[in-house]
Amino acid sequence: MTRQSFQKGHVSRPIRTSNGETIFKIRYRLRTAEGKWKQKSETLRGVKGRKEARAILEQRIQEMTPEKLLASELTLKGFIEAYWRHYLDRKCAKPSTRANYESALRAHVLPVLGDLRITDVVPLHIENFLQQRLSTGLSPKTVLNLVALLQCIFSVAVDNDLITRSPVRKRHKPVVQRREKPIWTADQVRLILAAVPARYRALFATAALTGARLGELLGLQWKHVDPKQRKLRIEQSLWQDQLLPPKTAGSVRSIHFGDGLASVFAEHSRTACRTGADDFVFLSPTGAPLHPDVLRKDVLVGSTWHPEKVRGVRFPYVPAFRGKLHQLSNWEFEARPEAAWARYDRHDGQDLYSHHS
Asked: Which residues constitute the domain of residue 147?
């Protein structure tokens, strides 16, 4: 229930303008979200008399809440800084997720929409913004992510009664064509493993035969590798030198492996500079954890053995570094992908790695 206001405000006498129009000016006080009083004035046109102006003044006093006053002055950039980032804190958003949001805001959203008052943003602003982004060459998938980000921001504003409805509509979402992801065959993976620098070979072999995410592989410590049980335990992910939980709760899992990958781990443990239980399995020559951006830039893209150039053979390149190979006997992936990988490893893994040992 809205608290009753006992202020009366002020209505001016009729004011005749130079063009012959009669106007009234009203003044009243509003309490801000910080609890302070603020004077507000307004010019009324088309009002028949002072009695009607007084009725409008009383309506303003009753209707205007601190939330509405705040929204009338708050820009989208100000709302993000003052409220939306705190919402992410309450939701315990992962650092990697927040970094992606901040990058999208900095590069795309704030330069275009940041200075608009949050109450002034309408669906046409969103439509023009998305058309502009697509015209600059952004992919529909990236633009779809921007739509989702804007919808989240404006939903928080709706929940706090700053606006009555989000300006983002369902029809703002671009259509994203689903494409089959490139899949490396066993022969292609052999070419990669033969050409990859020796210090990265164990990492690439583990990626090929487990299908684990790059962050999950870089977060592996020797205590997560069980050579007797032939099992890897995925419990964490490495991002920006921080150990974080995996992407989803279901990503915490055990992956069984066969003879081929077992021999890779055995050889890697003999040459690794650190093999303590809490040491990372895959390290740089200096003993520091590998950085995914360095791998993508210097190894996947910047080196002379780029997967598309290996021995002159061209085949699909997977920028996310999660290429999965076909099993030679064409086994289909089962409900638990690690079981299929382990089965492939037992049957063909030895041949896959035999010429590297």
From this structure: 76-172
3-state SS of 214-252? HHHHHCCEHHHEECCCCEEEECCEEECCEEECCCCHHHC
HSE of 209 in the Cβ direction (CA atoms, 13 Å)? 31
Same domain, 19 and 162: no
CATH number reported for the structural domain that contains residue 131 in this entry: 1.10.150.130
**113 and 159 housed in the same domain:** yes
Alpha-helical regions (H) of 17-176? 50-63, 66-73, 76-79, 85-90, 95-104, 110-113, 123-135, 140-159
C-beta neighbour count of 325 within 10 angstroms: 21
pLDDT beyond 90 at 185: no
Calculate ∠ Cα 131-122-142, nearest 5°.
35
Give 18-54 pLDDT, tens digit per residue.
888 999 999 988 766 566 777 888 899 989 899 999 9
